[in-house]
Amino acid sequence: MTLFLHTVQYNYYKLNHEDIVMTTQIKDRAKNIKINPHIRSMGISVLHLMAAFILSIGSVSGEMKPFGVTLVAVSKSRNIIFSAVGAILGYIINGFDEQSGKYIACVMIAGIMSFLFQKADIQKIIALKISISPIAITVINSIIATKDNEFFDRLLMICAEAVLSLGISYCYYKSLNANFKCLRFRALPAGDMICIAISFSSLFLILGNVKILELYPLWSLAVCLILLSIRYDGAKWGVILSLTLGFMLGASTNNMALLCSSFAFSAMTASLFTSFASLGISIIFMLCVAFFSISAGENGGLALFISSLMGIGLFLLIPPVLCDRIEKYFDNGKELTPDSTLRQSIVLKLRFASTAMTAVSESVEQVREKINDVTRRNNETLKDNMTKEEYITREVILEKTNQIRAVASDQFYSISSMLDDLANEFNNAEIFDSVSSEKIRKLLAEHEIYPENISSIVDKYSRMRVEILLKDNEQALSDKTLQNEIGKVCNRYFDTGRITDFKNETMLSFTEKPNYMLAIGFAQHSAQGTLCGDTVKTVNDGKGHSILIISDGMGKGSRAALDGAMGAGLISRLINAGFGFDSALKIVNSALLVKSNDESLATLDIANIDLFTGKCEIFKAGAPASYIIKNGNITKCELSSMPAGILRGIEFAKRTAVLSLGDSIIMMSDGITDLGEQWLKGVMSTMPYSVQECADYILNCALKETENKKRDDMSVIFAKLERNHNERDF
Fold first, then answer.
1. Which fold has domain 339-430?
2. What is the DSSP string of 446-487?
3. Pick the CATH number of 206-334 from 1.10.1760, 1.10.10, 1.20.120, 1.10.3720
4. pLDDT in tens, 413-429
5. Which of 35, 144, 240, 712 fits as disulfide partner to 671, beta carbons 3.0 to 4.6 Å?
């Protein structure tokens, strides 16, 4: 369970609440849209048919056309027939001859073998699956060559086509079986991504020889894609695209060697100059291409130069908005595994542990009841042999022992609730941003600060929370300049960080500045002595929530002050440590139950205000009514509930409201609310403007009203939602 920090200012968020809610609703609706499985299956089948048709038309050196056969061989059973039909149509589109007949026969053999392999449940053996296409092509080529008495003359071509078919089969197989259900494209293994790139580029074979004067449009498009990958992802993807696109586009025009070598060398050289931005990369790439164009001469040199020049022009004319989106795509995907895998594993284990602790609690409760029943029967049996005083003493001891066992059972249940709260917290975290964490670690290292752990967590509303854990107290972390630099490297606007010491560890937390801040005023009066039986606490949970607490101990004086301080202190620390409100109440209730032999209780009045949205959750355990002032109208919020420390199994009474800019919430102890609703509304209608003046005014009016009367402890919190005026330091 992580430790969260109290902050003085509250957070700012760059987007307003309405935009956040609208964006979230659109995303949720998009996620909830479900396509009919039959329509989805038919759509995939049609895509197989179209892809097979396009691939069958493409050729290498004008003779080898294994691509349609290969797709049929690696297709899944429900799509084999569609791939086969598409491939056959592609092979006969230019007329039926010996070559088209050969490949149609290969399609038939590959389709039958693939279907039989899947029926025999051996299709998952990748070596068998990718060998179907080369076997079919080799068999048919060998039969035709033998019939024409040219087997040895064609042997090299037969082997070359078999090798080409084997390599393409592997790429198609990996592409069709990529785990898109669990992984985003950016998180796929590099090998799978390369196979997808090769498979996709093979679709351009059909258009690779399309030419307008000396301009090949697809060559220009390829240059643009290569430059984009160099600019935003470095040499790796630049070289991958250079080789795959160069091979596929050059295969149909007999310029394979020229395109592969020129594209790859130019990409590697240009990647060394990424610091010079798009223009620098383009100039270096063009100079390298010019060298290859001059070397090639009339063998495609002019076409390469003109097409590359056009591609560079396209690259430089890409709108800045689109460039930003491309940069964001590559930046978010740098060698990151999908965040959901580890997160969901943790959530699953935490929830399993929560369920196990619930089962332990139930078992302990059953054992407690049985022991209590047996003990009481034994006590009744021995009643005649004991004096009245001995019997009463024994009953009191049994009752107290039973109560302690019951509290132990409740503690197991509280641990279960705590684990479930923690599971929900992990589940609500959308991304664990390891890129930002690494940037922060490098920044701190420059200041010779070496943290034990750094967590950068982004929730489903795109709000970031940064937590930095150190072994010892680091005074350098309180430096305002350093905190601003942390915001810069994360590209976020953070609230002032707070440092919390816990034994031998120190935690520094940052949260984004929200839309609102809470102006708080409070006032108290002790009815007896200097110790007030009411305790007032304010907490920030490190997630953009401001929490107001009033706890009223039973009675007056020091004992009431102890109970109130214990109730408010415990629950504030538990909430600050990340516990949920319900599980925190169970622990506080158990602590008060076993605190002493005498009755010990405390009311709890809590308001949890979300400073991003204005949502206000009210929790009451035996507490009096609160009041919300919204648009000048006063609304009473009264909930029936039991205070903590009386009975086991108490729960909060809850209500939710939404505060807007300028709305206020007033929380009071019963020393003030007992004066009556009409009196309170009269006082509230004449309050001053300042929140602290309002709190003082309510208390002073209550003291004046109870003059010469028996008073109880009095406490009041007046909080008003205000716009967060942001002072950006960077």
1. Helix Hairpins (1.10.287)
2. HTT---SEEEEEEETTS-EEEEEEESS--GGGG-HHHHHHHH
3. 1.10.1760
4. 777 777 777 777 666 66
5. 712
